[in-house]
Amino acid sequence: MTDSVRKLVQQRLRDGDYTCRKEFTLAMFNGKWKVNIIYHLGHEGSYYFHELQALLPHASHKELAKKLKELQEDSLIDREIEDNGPRVKVAYSLTPLGRSLLPIIDAMYDWGDQRLRELNVHDVQFGLGQVKQ
Amino acid sequence: MTDSVRKLVQQRLRDGDYTCRKEFTLAMFNGKWKVNIIYHLGHEGSYYFHELQALLPHASHKELAKKLKELQEDSLIDREIEDNGPRVKVAYSLTPLGRSLLPIIDAMYDWGDQRLRELNVHDVQFGLGQVKQ
DNA sequence: CCGTATCCACACCGATACTG
DNA sequence: CAGTATCGGTGTGGATACGG
Fold first, then answer.
1. Considering the entire predicted model, what is its pTM?
2. Are residues A24 and A49 in the same domain?
3. Signal peptide position in this chain (chains A, B) (predicted)?
C-alpha cells in the first residue's frame, strides 16, 4: 500500500480540513510492513533494527528504514541510539500513542483470523470470489 | 491507496500461507474511498451509485465503480439492480460480513477524532512532525 | 444510470550501492 | 549496524470516452 493516503491526509490537515478522521488513522498503519512493525513492538517489546529485519525477512533494508522513519514522524515509535562500541545499534519501541493503536490492530487480527477460519471451513476457494463477468 | 496489499494477501492465501491475518483485514478497506464507502453504507443504509458519487465528490466515476466491485468480490457489500424504467439504478448495501467490520472502522474514527483534537489543542503543527535531518 | 477501456502521470517499492 | 540515494519495474488512480 501506498503512502498516498498518508500524504493526502497530511495535505488536508494543512488545508484546515479535519473531516478525515478514519483516513487519518488508516494513514498511521497503511503502508507495507507498518502493521507488522507495530504489532511486534506492541506485543514483544523493543527491537533493534537488525532484529526487525530478521522478523520481516521479506522487507527490504531501505523500505524498513523508511517505514520506521514515518512511524517516528507520526509519534508512534521511539528511536534510541546505542553508541557503545564499534557498531551503532538503534532500538525501536512503541510510544504510548503507538500503544493506543494496539486495540485496533488486535481487532484486525481477530477479524482476519475468524474470517480465514470461516473460509477454510466452507472451502469457498478461500472466499476470494470473483464477480462473474 | 493501493490495492497491492489486497493482491499480495490473495496470492499468499493461494499459496497456502495464512499468516497474514492483519494484512487480510487491512486489505478489506485499504484503497482509496473504501473506508468511507463502508462507513456510509454501515451508518446510513443503502445507496444508489449516483448517491455514493454525491457523497464522495472527489472520487472519480471509474474508481468508485472499481472499489465497489472489489468490495463486492470480498463479500462486504451487496449489489442490487433495479431495472424498472428507462434508466437502470444499482443499489449497494453492506452484507452482514461488511457490517462486522464496522466496530473496527468506528474505532478508527474515534482514534482519529481524539488524536486530531489533541493535536489541535496542543497546536503542534497538527503533529505532523518532521524528523530532524 | 452504470460499467469498463484507454491513456497517462505519479507514487511505491525492490535491488543495489555508498556513507558514517 | 543503520540510513540514504539512485534507478527501474509496476501498480494505482485521474481524465476521458464509449458501450450496455
1. 0.88
2. no
3. none
**Per-residue tens of pLDDT for chain A, all 133 residues:** 346 788 888 888 888 888 889 999 999 998 889 999 999 999 999 999 999 999 999 999 999 999 999 999 999 999 999 987 778 899 999 999 999 999 999 999 999 999 999 987 655 444 454 444 3
Q: Residue B26 belongs to what domain range?
A: 1-30
Report DSSP letters for chain A, one per residue: --SHHHHHHHHHHHTT----HHHHHHHHH-STTHHHHHHHHHHH--EEHHHHHHHSTTS-HHHHHHHHHHHHHTTSEEEEEE--SSS-EEEEEE-HHHHTTHHHHHHHHHHHHHHHHHHHHHTSGGG-PPPP-
- The answer on A82 and A62 residing in a single domain is yes
All residues at 6 or more sequence positions from B75 whose CB lies less than 8 Å from its CB, including other chains? A127, A129, B95, B97, B98
**Amino acid code (one letter) for A120:** N
d(CA A11, CA A7): 6
Render pLDDT for B37-89 as a digit per residue (tens, 0 to 9).
999 999 999 999 999 999 999 999 999 999 999 999 999 999 999 987 778 89
Q: Report the alpha-carbon angle A103-A108-A113, nearest 5.
A: 125
Contact in structure between A46 and A61 (CB atoms under 8 Å): no
Which element (helix H / strand E) includes B116?
helix B102-122
Q: Which CATH number do you get for residue B38?
A: 1.10.10.10
Report yes or no: B54 at the A interface, CB cutoff 8 Å.
no
pLDDT for the residue A120: 78
